[in-house]
Amino acid sequence: MNWPQILFYFVLGLCPSWGGISLILKWSERRGDTLRGSEFHHSRRTSVPRLGGIALASAFAVCALTILLFSSISAANAQTLLVILISSLAMFGLGLWDDLRPLSAKFKLASQILISAAVYFGSVRIDIFKSPLTDTDISLGMLGFFVTVLWLVSLTNLINLIDGIDGLAGGICLMLMFLLANVGMGGDSGFISLLAIGVSGALLGFLRFNYPPAKIYMGDGGAYFLGFLIGILSIVNSNKGTVAAALLAPAFALALPIVDVGLAVLRRGLRGLPIFRPDRKHIHHHMLTLGISREVTLLNLYAVSMLCLVLAFGVFYMQGRMLPLYAGLLFFILLMASRILGMTKNWANLSSQLSKSLALRKETQYALTLNRWLVLEIERHQSCDELWQDYTFVVKKLRFTKVRVRLPDGSVNSWTADEVHVDSDDLHRAVHEISNGTSIEFYAKKEVMSDMLFNILGDLASEAWYKAAARWHALNRPKLHFVTTDASVGNITESNTVGFYLPVT
Fold first, then answer.
1. 226 near 218, Cβ under 8 Å?
2. What gap in Å lies between CA 363 and CA 9, rounded to an integer?
3. At CB < 8 A and 24+ separation, what contacts does 425-430 make?
4. What average pLDDT does the segment 192-197 reach?
5. Which are the contacts of 17, defined by CB distance < 8 A and separation ≥ 6?
6. pLDDT at 154 over 90
7. SS3 category, 306
8. In the chain, which residues fall in CATH 3.30.450?
């Protein structure tokens, strides 16, 4: 491998990505929509295309086919490259399908397992565990199947879960590709380095349009594709099945997102929420709530990830030796980053949730049941009035004392419990801004629920309205509109009844 070859494949990945995204943006602008609208937990209200993964996967396919057709690689390596190409595109196709038409979490997980299993039976697998401390090999046998599938599925979802702020997932994946390109150099697996270099070029072209403020997102297609590709390339780099520095190094480089996702899974588990349910409690969301701009937040997370990447290079070049030292340095970096980013307070809150976990889970499961009931009731509604009546029923059952909904068109309505003074200091109050332009204001008595429970139930009640309104629109097309509007910003006229009209379409 020489510098002209490296430059060639970098440009070969850059050009299709840059050009492809330009075409996608023009097509989306002419079409006037993004195929799949904004979602409940998305913080951006403007419509941004989610099809950036198409350009990334296309650039990857161009690089892989160029290597197959014009590079001198052995038959065994050609077979490995075909497995990488087909399986990565299959994972991209699954994510793209979800971008165009949302799929159930169970179906996506089952499909990811099936694709990963096909990779194992395609002879790209983890068969041997090599301890970096004792340098001894342990044959995994059939356990290698489960380890391989777990590794691939975990990395696939890891990248998808951290894709919550402009430029974050793309930037971290770019760092990983640089690492994988270095790990793959030498021996007979140099084609992996060329492939990683090509994807690096594609990611750079993508970041040109994804850096804040983003003009395009990679979507689930791009996130699934990149996460899976990182996982499968690291397996091939691990010397045909020997788990050593080639797998440890990417794990070090991904330390920040691994910790972030780990905390998210623990947080949702303690609260009784589905593990894969998105929320606004990730590290980047926390920084945004502190008033830090998206660009500064991204640069701070890049800085922490770069430090982790430096340790990852150290782990690789030392072949896993001195692993305790590097692990200690990694822990120190993450601890200092958590203090600087203001996350230690959240960790303290996490410990307090352990004692309240059982009660929280019961309340959460009850709220989720009401949410499902409300969405199902839409199928039986004959008028819009019934939606509001059912929603106020849900709010009452969750023990709120007042709810005020402002729709994207500016119309407002509210419900208030009898004999409740909204100006009282004994009430919780929070406003939830939804990505489609709806805002919902909740009140609840402090003696009835804690701050934490109020925040959780408010989030779930907001999601219930969002899903119910989206389902109504899918069935009836006309958007919801309240007849009575709020003329003043600060004061509203309280009413326990509501009228709707359907605009002519």
1. yes
2. 54
3. 427/401, 428/454, 430/454, 430/455, 430/458
4. 94
5. 55, 56, 58, 59, 201, 202, 203, 204, 205, 206
6. yes
7. helix
8. 358-476
Going 208 to 210 to 214 to 219, the CA torsion angle's sign is: positive
Whole-angstrom Cα distance, residue 459 to residue 440? 10
- The total number of residues shown for the chain amounts to 505
The predicted pLDDT at position 127 comes to: 84
- pTM for the full model? 0.81
- Alpha-carbon distance of 447 to 454, in angstroms, equals 11
Q: What is the pLDDT of residues 418-461, one digit of tens each?
A: 766 666 778 899 998 886 778 999 999 988 888 888 988 999 99
Contact 149, 116 (CB under 8 A): yes
Alpha carbons 165 and 20: distance in angstroms, whole number: 22
Under 8 Å CB-to-CB from 465, ≥6 apart: which residues? 391, 405, 434, 438, 440
Residue 302 CA from chain centroid, whole number: 17
What is the C-alpha to C-alpha distance for residues 480 and 46, in angstroms, rounded to an integer? Answer: 19
Query: What Å distances lie between residue 171 and 97, 200, 275, 288, 306, CA to CA?
Result: 24, 10, 25, 18, 10
* Cα end-to-end distance, the chain, whole Å: 61
**Cβ–Cβ under 8 Å, residues 438 and 408:** yes
How many whole angstroms separate alpha carbon 174 and alpha carbon 169? 9
Distance CA 420, CA 209 (A): 50
Condensed to tens digits (0 to 9), the pLDDT of residues 365-424 reads 999 999 999 989 888 876 777 888 899 999 999 999 999 999 888 888 889 887 666 667
Give the mean pLDDT of the chain.
Answer: 83
Token digits of residue 181: 């390109």
Give the H or E element holding residue 498.
none
pLDDT at 74 over 80: yes
Sheet of 242-243, strand order: 137-139, 128-130, 242-243
Please count the other Cβ atoms lying within 10 Å of the Cβ belonging to residue 128.
18
pLDDT in tens, 243-268: 556 678 888 888 888 888 887 887 77
Report CA-CA distances (Å) from 169 to 302, 304, 375, 429. 10, 14, 32, 34
Six token digits for residue 94: 């699954």
Task: Quote the DSSP letter at residue 479.
Answer: P
Q: Spelled out in words, what is the top-level CATH class assigned to the domain 358-476?
A: alpha beta
Spatial neighbors of 118 by CB under 8 A, at least 6 apart, are: 87, 90
